[in-house]
Amino acid sequence: MSDTVEKPSGEKPAPSVKVNDRRRVRDDVDAVGTEPGQPAPSASASPAAPATEAPAGEAQRLHAELDAARKRVDELARGLQHSEAEREAFKQRLTRERDQLLDLEKGKVAMVLLESLDDLELCLSAPDGSPLYQGVRLIRDGLVRKAIDFGLERVELLGTTYDPNLAEASDMEVCATEADDMKVVAVSKAAWRLKGRVLRPGRVKVLRFVKPAEA
Question: Could you tell me which of 67, 154, 181, 186 has the fewest CB atoms within 10 Å of its CB?
Answer without folding.
Answer: 67
